[in-house]
Amino acid sequence: MPHIVIDYSPNVESHVDMSALCELLRSTAATIDAFPMPGLRVRATKADHYAIADGNKQHGYIDVSVRLRAGRSLEVRQAAIQALFEVAREYLSPVLSQRSLALSFEMRNIDAELSPKCGSIRDHLPEN
After folding, report:
1. Is residue 115 over pLDDT 70?
2. Distance (Å, rounded) from C-alpha 81 to C-alpha 88?
3. How many separate domains does the chain show?
4. Long-range pairs for 97-100 at CB < 8 Å and ≥24 separation?
5. What is the structure's pLDDT at 127?
């Protein structure tokens, strides 16, 4: 873990390189000790249907959800979410200054007892 899930309105695609945002969040998360690199997953999903504020289709949003296994202190989680938020806000600052865009982040703990996992990614990573 973590899983970083970006949900966004389709009208931001003409102004934001979503693949680059995914990579930026992945590479930033990889520098955060609380996030084990082999467990990182970043994905973006465009909303097919949405309505924002007064209904003006010029409004857009990018909502980022970070799901992380429980066990980290509040201070560690706050520092991690703030680091991700700041790098995204900086990346999106040209768009935020030119267009109507809402950016939001949220981190949620995952209960390990209710979240079974298996995988072989670690088996295929190069040795450090």
Report:
1. no
2. 11
3. 1
4. 98/15, 99/15, 99/58, 99/60, 100/56, 100/58, 100/59, 100/60
5. 74
Burial class (CB in 10 A: 0-12, 13-18, 19+), 37: middle
Sheet strand arrangement including 101-110? 41-46, 3-8, 60-69, 101-110
Report the relative pairing of strands 60-69 and 101-110 from DSSP bridges.
parallel
Distance between CA 85 and CA 71 in Å, rounded? 21
Task: Give the SS3 label for residue 62.
Answer: strand
pTM, two decimals, is 0.86
The domain in which residue 105 lies consists of 3-124
| Residue 63: exposure state from Cβ atoms within 10 A (0-12, 13-18, ≥19) | middle
For residue 114, what pLDDT is reported? 59
The CA-atom distances, in angstroms, between 48 and each of 12, 53, 68 are 13, 17, 26
Q: What CATH code is carried by the domain that includes residue 44? A: 3.30.429.10
